[in-house]
Design goal:
By secondary structure, this protein is of the alpha+beta class. It contains 8 helices and 44 strands. The protein is elongated, with a radius of gyration of 36 Å.
Amino acid sequence: MYENRFWIMVVLSMAVLPSASAYINVDAINNADTYVRSGQNTTNYGSDAALGIYGSGAKMNTIMNWTLPSGDEDITEIALTLYCQNWDNFPATPVELHVLNEPFEQYNATWSKRKSSTDWTNTGAEAPISMNSTVVDSIHVDSEGFYTWVLRGPDASNRLDSLSWGDTINIALTLPDETGFRGIQCYSKEWYYNQPYMVVTNEVPAAPHIIDVTTASVRKTSALIRTITDTPTVNVIVNYGTNSSDLNLWSYADSLSDTSYNLLKSLTPNTTYYYRVYASNYIDNTYKIDSPLLSFTTDPDGSYIPLVTFVFDDGWKSTVDASHILNDSLFSGVSAIVTDMPDISPAYMNWTQIQELQNTYGWEIASHTTSHADMSTLNKSRLESELGDSKTALTDKGLDVYNFISPYGAYNYLTEAYVMRYYDSDRIVSDGPIAPPYDEFPLYARHIQNTTTLSEVKEWVDSAIINNSWLILVLHRIVDSNPMAEEWTGDDLASLAQYIESKGELRVVTIREAQTTSFDYKGIYASTATRRIVNTVYPDGTVDYSKTATGHPGINATVLPSSDPVAVDITLWNKAGDYKIQFNESSTNASNEVRYILGDIKANAKYSVKVYWSNGTLFQDLYINSNESGYLSYNTTGFENPRYTVIQQTALVPSYMAIAIVAMVIIGGIAFILIARLKI
């Protein structure tokens, strides 16, 4: 439910566009970054994903080494940007940038040493010798987000005008005036997004304008916020939370685009969230603007029971064999299709086989990109084409496509925002099962390979039952024997299906079914020609199933025992034609009274309800009219022995006609006697 939208009309003739000679160069190389910490004199943090800058309570200084790109254009500004968060508490004093006079080694630098065998002149890379005492720039960091320190440019405190193309510089970030336990941590180059970057440009930075903010998509546990700005040289972040006066969560979008998408994940279903968008200039993030406070409400949730989903990646031809094996247990699955493969290679299914999976066997078809590309390595243009073109290819073949499967399970925070623009979820290959409520981006799974034993997978199934979770199983090729990498045998798949079939607590579902259907233990299900299911119904309406109800037809029936449970096995339930119903039933309580409310039968019709002992002896014989809505209701008791019930329309003459016929017979008989006497 989208509750707010922020929209500004911009007069295009007033937009300020960069000149043809303007440039923004982001090719500076971050050769090394780490931090050193007082009290941890011999500890190196060169592999950490964070850079610490902290006050006197636990003194930390960040040190970096950068090389500027080559070039010959005029330079207006050189600026360093980091994405920072609080460490304990945000500092009350500015974070200072200084030139670092002494070189260091990223994986050897400590509070005591700058290289493996060389000490700092001033421990901790401090001033006045190890670190230059002059403050190049200082920034007050008081909330999460992007922060920029200017090295050369009009906004620097003491600009380094001599810094130019191709130069290498060592710098330090420090909080010299901060006392107590306050500081920040910023992402290092070891983190996989929002890494430090340095810009060289001839542009003069200015605050961007937000043209439009929209809640582009909302699901149970995720939302996608779209922001349009007047320039692509922006960073866009979203601050959000459930308390409008205390927004405590943050989301980042891909940079350098005038249309940004922020993924908000791990949300609570049926909950109102408030958010504010911040757009800052990519060159110098000090220049920024924010939107009004907006809101949305996540989709409501349903009930949860343990689920299992079979997903077969890549569209191998052996998926057809898998569909036959699973169909024997009345199960369907999900096939993830690489759309460049069908009708190209004989190792893969053709389009007819893929369509048959959906239309005959009830499978879900998911996108697996056009070329099986690693999503985490793609640029924006490739991301768009792999996601959009694959969906178009599938829908053009008449396939219903809702969900995405990341090749290799490769993803990151930013690729997930792109995926949500096209699909309802993204399944990866690790970290499953999933506990409710289910996060859609990503969906975690368990990967079955040739080294995975049947007993291991059975343990995963049992764990899903115990923890009431959703187990998504990832498979690839199915072979007869001697499985190699990414293969599993058909015998093991059949044994696993039979094991899952025996678990009444489970449902086998597609991804789409898990997202759109609420499952519980209250429905009544009928047996099929090949698979029998017994519904043990309790007085509170809950049901224990003798096996998984997956694949069994749901019956429009309510069975309400008065005291002890009653076991019901529905063997026939005709919704048309003769509307005949037949079921077996039993209870451990001989005097148990049970009320039946049976639907999907012919309205306003007379039915015969005959209850037999299991030996064929008629025990009860009832005649009941169905109501105008097609429901039949009655009560019965007597469970001394197992029994079965047969319900069908009766050909008996309606009661008013029967009375008329009896009356006519009586009148006719009297008339006959009178005539006979007159003749005498």
